[in-house]
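If it is no trouble, can you show me the amino acids of a protein and the tokens describing how it folds?
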Amino acid sequence: MLEYFVEHHQWIGTVYIWIYYKNTGLQVGKIGQNGRSLELIGTEEENNQFVIELPCAVEPTRAKLNYKGDLYNLRLTAVKNEQRFDRSSNHIMEEVVSKWMRKDLVKGPFTFYCSCCNDQLICSKDYTKVRDMPSEFWAEFMDYWHCHKPHSDTNSTLSNGFDNKFTKSVVPTVGEICLSDSFIYIHKDSLNSKIVYDYNNVFCNSCKQVLGSVNRDGSIGFKKWCLKAEINKEIETIDISNYVLNQIFNELKAHSTRLFHIRDNSIAMEVQVWVFGFGSTISFSNSHLLTNCMKILYQRGGPPNGPQNSQNIELIEVDEPNALSAFISRLDDVNSNLPHDLQRMNEWKVGYISCD
């Protein structure tokens, strides 16, 4: 029996392979002709040759397997023409963008359907403008935009003008779509007969599924995971767990936070999350491939009591039902596919989650 886990770090051009094999004597055979497979030779009388499919092409090598117990490991070098980056750059965080943003919708005609009954709700032909919303932390970056940031002063005409313009919500106009990481905003006067709303929520008129909420500024916010998108003839959906993932991204980009305490008070669920590497590609024995992954250490429960233990931990309150449980389930699914010796790091469980 042979199980493996492969991790490709594009930014350093390295491929790490961990192999679980119950017998000793496992050896490296050869690299495939295209550099994207690795042959291993075992000691069993039957089925003693194994092939590992690699996520990228690697250089020919005579590398020797290292092992401890039943776990072997091997390090390979990606070929030079494969994508590789400067370690000092922050290109990965810059490239991490949520799905269904402007860059996606301008590729071709798009239509959004109710994820429950498939009724057509929003169509590109009815809208003349699509734009991305600013980061939710845009106001905190004002120091980088202005040499002399305006201050609130009732006697200052300039300050009042600034406050009136920039302290209000960004509201879409009629015929315009505004996009954030987790929501799609349109003006309530842009709605068609297939969408109805009350004082708080927006519903599909056919199946009555809740699609989003009515905001105080008069805009309608659709939850992306309640919709199904057809963009340039491709059908896509978004998992509800991305709601948690997007909040982590916002904190990473705005504050470089790596340690989080995430909780959903509605179901008394909480988890600690420690974010490590970004942008890796991983694969397993079952040929399951995940790209653009974030490596996460996590454990159930909140941080230990005491200010010394919570000083550098960012609290995220999840107000969307089932989002946190779905996020943890994605981590648990990957964790269960890792070789047993790689599933934990001390008291932390090890998981990966794809950002695509």
Observations:
- The mean pLDDT is 83.
